[in-house]
């Protein structure tokens, strides 16, 4: 599949690109700054020399991809994606955004947001197919390609079409076990759990994730 990353230069976006590149997908690295995209692309080529990697701006990245991962700070999501509304029509979007706040060394979910980021995107981009996932999968785990992943991948989605495409994509990656958690409005629940994991990570110096027992 052709998979784009906005941005493909940040910690999560680049790590996702590496993990999906490992499964031989075509990778499109998007950045506001093409030289930054090239730098990230070259770092990935050093790890995965045989993978097709193209580097460009956000618009070209969207146009060339079937599936676009959103890995942006929450504060810029609306401003960066609104100008791409037309290009994002008909595309599958995997939203990984967590609206985080760090105050006096403690992580919490940003206060005052009434809806989940993915529900917000569903309303902002009505002609795109939104999936909410990967919030609890750390870039550190995605990047450690020598280590087998064994992660529950919590996801939220409203419609069958994006769900089928997402599951088809995830099936190509070893060690990701998809767990359906409901509709996009409910992904507000995971936005509250990520700060919990980050505070635990700080205490123990580890990268933790969520495992669902009993399924
Ligand atoms: N890090 C993780 O392990 C992890 C795990 C799960 C989910 N997430 C989520 O993924 C998102 C990105 O996190 P991250 O850790 O990858 O962040 P990051 O390393 O800071 O990367 C964010 C990227 O956003 C782009 N960007 C666009 N407009 C920006 C602006 N005005 N200011 C700063 N950056 C801007 C930048 O790419 P260009 O300059 O190339 O455009 C930058 O590389 C967050 O919502 C986070 O909650 C992260």
Q: How would you describe the overall organization of this protein?
A:
The chain is of the alpha/beta class and 215 residues long. The protein has one domain (2-99, 114-187): Rossmann fold. It is built from eight helices and ten strands. The strands form two sheets. An eight-stranded mixed beta sheet has the order 3-2-1-4-5-8-9-10, sandwiched between helices. Helix 4 (74-81) links the parallel strand 4 and strand 5. The radius of gyration is 16 Å and the shape is globular. The structure holds NADP nicotinamide-adenine-dinucleotide phosphate.
User: What proportion of the residues is helical, as a percent range?
Assistant: 25-40%
- Shape designation: globular
Biggest sheet, strands in spatial order?
A: 3-2-1-4-5-8-9-10
Terminus-to-terminus distance: 29 Å
Strand content bin: 15-25%
Topology of this protein?
Elements: E1 2-6, H1 11-21, E2 26-30, H2 34-47, E3 53-56, H3 58-64, E4 67-70, H4 74-81, E5 92-95, E6 100-103, E7 106-109, H5 117-124, E8 129-133, H6 139-143, E9 151-157, H7 160-170, E10 176-180, H8 188-204
The structure holds NADP nicotinamide-adenine-dinucleotide phosphate.
Pick out its properties.
215 residues, alpha/beta, Rossmann fold, eight-stranded mixed β-sheet, two-stranded antiparallel sheet, 8 helices, binds NADP nicotinamide-adenine-dinucleotide phosphate
């Amino acid at each position: 599949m052709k998979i784009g990353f906005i941005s493909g230069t940040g910690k999560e976006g680049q790590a996702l690109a590496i993990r999906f590149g490992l499964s031989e997908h075509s990778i499109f690295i998007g950045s506001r700054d093409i030289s930054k995209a090239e730098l990230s692309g070259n770092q990935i080529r050093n790890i995965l020399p045989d993978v097709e990697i193209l580097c460009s701006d956000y618009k070209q990245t969207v146009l060339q991809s079937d599936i676009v991962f959103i890995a942006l700070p929450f504060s810029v999501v609306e401003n960066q994606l609104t100008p791409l509304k037309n290009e994002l029509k008909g595309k599958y979007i995997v939203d990984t955004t967590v609206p985080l706040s760090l105050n006096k060394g403690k992580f919490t979910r940003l206060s005052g947001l009434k809806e989940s980021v993915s529900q917000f995107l569903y309303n902002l981009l009505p002609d795109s197919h939104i999936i909410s996932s990967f919030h609890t999968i750390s870039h550190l785990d995605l990047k450690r390609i020598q280590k087998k992943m064994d992660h529950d991948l919590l996801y939220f989605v409203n419609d069958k079409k994006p769900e089928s495409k997402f599951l088809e994509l995830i099936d190509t990656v070893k060690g990701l076990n998809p767990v359906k958690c409901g509709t996009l409005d409910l992904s507000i629940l995971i936005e509250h759990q990520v700060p919990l994991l980050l505070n635990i990570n700080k205490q123990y110096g580890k990268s933790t994730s969520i495992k669902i027992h009993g399924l």
